Amino acid sequence: MDSLGILVVGSSPECAEEINSLLRNHGILVRVSFAADCRGVRDRLQAERADLLIYDVSAPVEAPVDEVMALGEAASAMNCVRFSPAAPERLIEAAAGHRCITLNADDNQQLLGLVETLLREWQAAKRARPMQDPLRDLQQCYDTLLDSTADAVALVHEGLHIRANRVYLDLMRAANLDELAAVSVLERVEASSDRLRTVLSKLQSNGGECDLAVTVSTPGHDAFEADLACRGVRFGGEQCVHLVLRPRDEHARLQTEMKRLRETDPLTQLPNRHAFEQRLAESPGPAPDGYEAAALYYLELDGMAELARQLDPPASDELLAALAARLHAAVGDDDLLARYSDHGFVVFAQRKDSGSLQRLGDALLRAGANPAPDSGTEQTTAGISIGMAWANGEVSAWEAWLRQARSAFNTAARAGATLERYRPEQAAAAGDAPDGHWADRIRQALDNREFYSVQHSIINLEGETEGLFENRTQMRAQGGDLPPEEYLPAAEFHGLGSNIDRHIIPGLLGAISGSGDRHIINLSRNSAQDFSFTAWLSQQLEQHAVIPSQLIFQIATPAAIDHREETQRLRQELAALGCGFAMAEYGDQPGSYRLLETMRPALVKLKADLTRDLPDRPDHQDLVRRLTARARALHTEVIADDIQDASALAMLWQCGIRWVAGEFLEDMPQLENIRSGPG
Q: pLDDT digits over 278-297, tens only?
């Protein structure tokens, strides 16, 4: 904009020329333009800026005063009506609906005075414009210095935070200024509150400086000592107080913060696994202060692996954080609640009696029985399963409590949304004897190479000639060699299952190499949880020159249900090597069909008790038919094992089973009669 702009609205250009001549004769040089109607006014305002719009007394009816005033206001022009005292109608109409300046057409001094005033203001604004960019630059430099300084700096007005740099926000444990904006500094900083309130009020009113020794409290109830330097300043046109906060022992504060970060789960803000184990290791044993009973609980969300696949990562995090909040509300102040694994939580509680501990377990169960966030397709309900172990005088170390709680959790998870207490008699039956008897026997057998593998043929009833064998590992013992059903639960409990697998597999690969047959090799649940297993297996395959497609590695279905994520990872890694995947002991376990859909194994082997006495069990016949139909719909073949007689074999054929195994099948000629039978 080179000069002040005036737009004159009148009946002819002469009215604009008259005004221009008047201004020039008085030494005022401005840009004057003309419009005769509303369209002309609109075009002129779009083409060039008008600082003053003059509606002349001679304006025609084609330029209604109301519309012209509205156009001027929209263009941020100053509206002016030049009227004749003899005909004030246009002035009255303009003043009725718009703000405007009035000029008597018979008094040119009014026009001259108005334009001179506007011209002075325009020239002052023009001189000020070059100063605005340096001011913006200075403001940016100030902001940069404030945010980059190592000191914690904040500005407060009437006790409330209005500005703070990153260091100050970090000290106050605030993510951004919005979290502090409505918080009085008196709520976080203490120096005897009355004194600090007086100091802030005095500095804001009269200026000056003051130094105080203060105690700062954070939202997490942590506190640290600091020195506070304050002085009165002006900011944003207001008298404020400038604060500089310097912790007295920064090293100690950093050490405290690092310790907190090491021991806190970032998602749930609960103690993490390290902190939980350290707390228990420091003070195991009898409960203090009159408490006579204690228990440890292990819990997980039911079907969390499946939920994680349905939800995006933020929604999964929100689900776990919400569960943590509900669990925190359910436990007592003295209870120790922690996040123990990706999906698992633990609680250690002490009470006066066992009934109180049982009620706490029930409260935890209710806390987990809330709906999960919407997955996008349907509302998914999540519950929790809890394993509970008594921490009494019979157990001297917290590791044993945790093993017992996890053992009880595995039982609870099979049913879903239940609380299961650890029962020593059940654990002993499963080989979980705390005395380590099984562990010693298994380690001795490994040292003496007393494990060996036995091959069992698997026959295809449809006559396919491809060789398929299952390899089962036996353990030598004085009273007779033991099948895996007897020693494997104890081996898995003591973490020795993977040792047995690595002991047996190299010899199997040496025997399989070059045979052309397919072999099922059973794996323990320890191997499924062993992240290094597939890397070791890859080396063994290369060393023994075995074609990976000859191998099918089999996991027990209960183990796969208990460790869904680990089993899924194992299946994917085996597929990457070119090996197959199968599941044994398949039946009517809760979640087994969903697991089948997820894992898509090449083979599943039915539980032995489903096919035992099958001709006499119509309920089992119906179940086997359904299981077989579901599996084959997913292109998974079903194997029936331990076949005892021809009637069972014929019934399996009618149920859709095509792969069978058992000592009875050594009499091969009977297979033709089975295939030609009904079904």
A: 888 776 544 455 566 788 99
Helix ranges restricted to H, 224-283? 250-263, 273-282
Q: Which residues pair with 82 in a beta bridge?
A: 103
User: Angle CA(370)–CA(376)–CA(378) in degrees, nearest 5?
Assistant: 60
Please write the tens of the pLDDT for every residue from 609-643. 788 778 888 888 888 888 888 888 888 889 888 78
Q: Which of 584, 589, 618 is nearest to 603 (CA)?
A: 584
Q: Are 521 and 605 in contact (CB under 8 A)?
A: no
Residue 204 has pLDDT above 50, yes or no: yes
Sheet with 52-55: list strands edge to edge. Answer: 31-35, 5-9, 52-55, 78-83, 101-104
Give the pTM. 0.41
Q: Is there a contact between 92 and 77 (Cβ–Cβ < 8 Å)?
A: no
- Count of CB atoms within 10 A of residue 240's CB? 22
Report the C-alpha gap between 242 and 344 in whole angstroms: 47
Percent of the chain at pLDDT > 70 equals: 84
Residue 51: how many other CB atoms lie within 10 Å = 21
Closest CA to 58 of 90, 28, 29: 90
Q: How confident is the model at residue 358 (pLDDT cuts 50, 70, 90)?
A: confident
Question: Which residue did the predictor score with more confidence, 134 or 300?
Answer: 300
Count Cβ atoms within 10 A of the Cβ of residue 335 and give its class: 0-12 exposed, 13-18 middle, 19 or more buried.
middle
Two structure tokens written together for 297 = 């609980």
Give me 662's structure tokens: 């058992």
Q: Which residue, chain included where needed, has tokens 């804001």?
A: 204
Q: Give me the sign of the Cα torsion angle 519, 525, 526, 527.
A: positive
Q: What sign does the CA torsion over 173, 178, 179, 181 have?
A: positive
Helix 13-25 × helix 108-148 angle, to 10°: 80
User: Which residue type sits at 128?
Assistant: A
State the Cα–Cα distance between residues 542 and 339, nearest whole angstrom.
Answer: 41
Residue 147's contacts (CB-CB under 8 Å, 6 or more residues apart) are 165, 166
Please answer whether residues 482 and 441 qualify as being in contact, where contact means their C-beta atoms are separated by less than 8 angstroms. no
DSSP symbol at 184: B
Q: Which of 118, 131, 145 is nearest to 23 (CA)?
A: 118
Name residue 504's amino acid: I
What pLDDT sits at residue 679? Answer: 39
CA 292 to chain centre: 39
d(CA 472, CA 522): 7
Least confident of 385-394, 540-549, 551-560: 385-394
